[in-house]
Every structure is written in C-alpha cells, then in structure tokens.
Amino acid sequence: MVSKSKIQTIHQNTYPAISPTRPELSTKGKSALISGGASGIGAAITQSFAQSGITNLAILGRTEKSLLEKKTQVELISPATTVWIYVVDVANAKATLSAVQSFAASINGKIDILIANAGYMSSLNSVSDSDPEDWWLGFETTVRGNFNLLQAFHGFASQQATVIHISSSAIHLPYMEGYSSYRSSKLAAYKLFEYYHEENPSFTVVHIHPGLISGTAMTEKFGPSVEKFGLVYDDVTLSGDFTVWAASEEAQFLNGRLVWATWDANELKTMKDEIKADKARFTMGFFT
C-alpha cells in the first residue's frame, strides 16, 4: 500500500537492508516478548525475530494450538532460541502480568524488546447499528490490552528497552464507513504509547504501520474495502523484517515516531539528522 509521505522508495516485499539475517540486526543474547505473536502479522514478526537469532522469546496469544505451532516453527528456524508460550487475553490484566512475570523469572533477567501487536477489528457497522459489546471489544483489546501489557512489562524491562507498537495507517485517514471502533481505538492506542515514550526517556518506542496485509482475521472484514478502492496488499514478511530492523540500533533515531513498514530503511537512515532535529517529524501531528 502506497503512503503519501515524502519517502521516495516504497516496498511491498522484503529486501536486503532489513533482512533479519544481517549480522547488524542480530538479536542474539536478547529477550523479546510478542503479543498476538502466533497468527497473522504477529506470526510474521515472530518468524523474523527467530531468523535474527533471538535468544529468549515469549509469545502471547489466545489460542493454544496456534501458539504450539508457532513455537515448533521458531525452534526449527532457530534451534538456539528458547521459546515460551502463554495463552493469554491481554485484556485480562492479571493473566497478562502473570505471563510477563513468568517469562522474566524463566530467563533470570530483564526483557529487552516488547512487540505490542494484539488488536481487534469490530464488525464494520455504523455507530448506531453496531453491537455495543463487539464495538467496545476493539477498545478492550487495543487500548486496555496494551495498557495492561505496558504495565506488566514495565517492572521487568531492561534499562534501555525497545517497545514496538504495531499501529495502523488508519489513524491518519478520513471517514470510511464502518470503521468507527477500529480507527478510534487505534488512535487511542497511539496516544497511550506516545505517553509511555515520554514518560520513559531511556526506552526506545517506535510505532509501525505494518502494511496492508492479506490472510489475517481482519482481512475478512476489510477485504471488500481493499477491492473497492483498488488497493494492493503488501507481503507479510515485509512487516516482520521491518519490525526487526526497527528494534535494532540502526533505527534508534526513530524513537517516538510513527513509520510505515513499506518505507525504505536506507532512505530513512539518510534522513536521520533531519528526523532527530525535528521532534514533530513522523508523529501524529505532523506526518510528512
């Protein structure tokens, strides 16, 4: 999906600069926790971190079967990676805290990387026609769930931890019928992570729009909109690999920024000084 930023080079597939097998992007010796990491975009992110050689990996999700399958896949990709899985709904604060505590205790240390990926898209009805329980579930997962996750993570975060928030380009877009729950909850989540960034200056917090991805639970709902507007899907491997790059030292200059996985990493690096000098660049207030 093409963005309207000033980035000249846009990708729909992964490319060498963000390959998780690059030595510069190695996560060997580090620990990471990924919410919603067993399906869809989260599964691709999990796979990319496995390819980067992550030492300790915790995967949170709501379905034991998908978690077990992803654990097996990670262990095949990276036999040196130790994988923990937790059947957790992040909207449940006690269960989320228990999972994070268990992972931290298991690795006898701190968590270096948090990938906050869990989200929910309610049925695409008007505000007046929406089922209230389904509509609010978007906020329960995307806002309350991420709040719970950040609170649980905070006590076990390494001193210079990296937090990646999987956001959405939808928060920039004008009205589109049926998306009131999804877009408003995603916008609220962005602000939540914006505050967490400002409150924790030793951490790196990056928001990522992962691209327009097919084959996910959400695709079944927004697929007709993609066809209606003639949009093109991006490859999910791009989402995973870009996230690994965004969590690396190379991308620390993006701290506090919202970037698209489709944007060229090399081009972003050439803008490093410009971005660091302009505190509003690539934030919700100023996108270009």
Automatic annotation (TrEMBL):
GO terms for molecular function: oxidoreductase activity. This is Uncharacterized protein. InterPro entries: NAD(P)-bd_dom_sf, SDR_fam. It comes from the Eukaryota. The lineage of its organism: Eukaryota, Fungi, Dikarya, Ascomycota, Pezizomycotina. The keyword Ribosomal protein does not apply. Keywords: Oxidoreductase. Pfam families: adh_short. Belongs to the short-chain dehydrogenases/reductases (SDR) family.
